[in-house]
Here is the input.
Amino acid sequence: MIEIKDVRKSFSTLEVLKGINLTVSKGEVVTIIGGSGSGKSTLLTCINGLEPINAGQITIDGTVVHAKDTDLNKLRRKVGIVFQQWNAFPHLTVLENVMLAPRKVLGLAKEKAEEIAVKQLTHVGLAEKLNVYPNRMSGGQQQRMAIARALAMSPEYMLFDEVTSALDPMLVGEVLDTLKMLAEEGMTMICVTHEMAFARDVSDRVAFFHHGVMAEIGTPDQLFGAPQHPDTQAFLASAR
Amino acid sequence: MFDTALTWNDIAFLAQSAAMTLAVTAVSVTIGTVLGILFGVLRVQLGAIWSAPLTFVLDVFRSVPLLIQLVLGNALQSIAKLGWAPFTTSCVVLSLYTAAYCSEIIRGGIGAVPSTTRRAARSLGMTWWQDMRYIVAPLATRVSLPAWIGLTLGVMKDSALVLWLGLIELLRASQILVTRLQEPLFILMICGVIYFVISFPIARLGGYLERRWSPND
Here is the structure.
C-alpha cells in the first residue's frame, strides 16, 4: 500500500505540490490527469525517492520513503518507474538493458537474469529484438523495453510517468496495450497520463491535479461522467 | 643523402632514447589518467563551489608552460632535498600536467551522460557506484576517448622537454648526434619517423575503438 499524506514539494520558490493526500491499495490502478505543471509527474518521482519532499510523508508498505535511515536502493527494487523519455542504456543490447539491474542489484546469476529478461521482453512483444541495440528500435519499442526493464526487478508497484507523451501517435497504442495488459494482470499502478480514453478504460480511480492540488478523485464514471470541480469540468471539456 | 656517417651504434642509441621517451610517456599518462579520473569525478561530485580549490590548482598546471613546470619542479625537489632522479621529477611533473587536462576530459565525459539516463539507472535500485560503473563509465569513455588519445599523443611529444632536466630521450639523443655528425636533416628525419612510428598505433587504436563502439550509440 502506498500512502501519501499531506505531501508538499517546492522547487526553490515554486510550490508544485501543495498538500497531496492519496492512498493506493495493492492491485489498484490509479491514473492521474491534469494540465502541464500541475505537479503530477513530480509526485511520481517523490514516491520512489528520486526527489526529496518538503513536508508530509510517503509510506510504502510501512516504510517511510524520505526517512533518513531508509535504504532507497532497496525500496526502489519494489517500486518500478518508467519515464516519458525511455532512457535506454545505449551501450547495451536490449537483453543486456533488461538483465543489468537483476544481475547487479538483485545479484542473480547470469542464466537466471537472462531467463527473467527474456520472459519480460517476450511479455512486452520484443522477443525478436533481444540482441538489437536500442537506437535501432522505434520509440514505442524502446518504451516497451523500458517497461520490461522495470518489470524484470519483479516490482510490487509500477509508476508510469506520461510514458506515451514523447511517442509518435502511431506508436502510442502498442505501449498503452502493454500497460492495459499489466493492469489486467493485477499490477498495482499509478499512471500519469494525457490519454483520457486509456485512463477511463483501465483505472479503478482517476485523480485530477490542478496547480499542485488534487482537485478531484473518483471512479472513471464519476470523474469523466459527472465531474464535480469546475476546474475538472474545464479541463475535460478542453481535452475532448 | 645515403652517404652518412651514422653507424648502427648511433641507431641503437636513438632506439634506446626512444625507449626513454616511451617510458616517461607511459608512466606519466598512466598516473595522470588515474589522477585525472579521480579529480574529474571528484569535481563533478563536489560541484563547482566545493571543488574550486582543486580546479584552481589544476588550472595552474594547465596554464603554466610545461618547460617552466619542469624547471621549477626540479628546483623545488632539490630545495626540499627530496633527492629525486631526473626521471622521477619528470614523471611527477608530467603526471600532474596530464592529470590537469585529463580531469577536464573526464568532467566533460561525465557531463555528456544524460541525467535522465542516470536517473533511470538509480530508479532500478542501482547504487551511485553501480550507476558510475555500469552506465556512466562506459558512456563517458566513448565521449572522452578522442580527446584522451589527443592528450596522450600530446604528452608524448611534450615529453621531449624533459631533456632540460638532463634525461636523454629521443629529441636530446638526436641533438647529440646532430652536433657530432653535422647531418641535421637526415637525423631529425629519422627522429621524426620514430615519433611517428610510436604515435601511429595509438592514434589507430583510438580510431578502431571509435568504430567498434559507434554502431551502438
Summary: The mean pLDDT of chain B is 92. Chain B touches chain A at residues 114, 116-117, 119-127, 130, 134-135, 138-139, 142, 213, 215-217 (CB under 8 Å). Residues 174 and 187 of chain B are 6 Å apart (CA to CA). The helical segments of chain B are 8-50, 52-63, 66-79, 86-111, 115-123, 128-158, 170-181, 184-213.
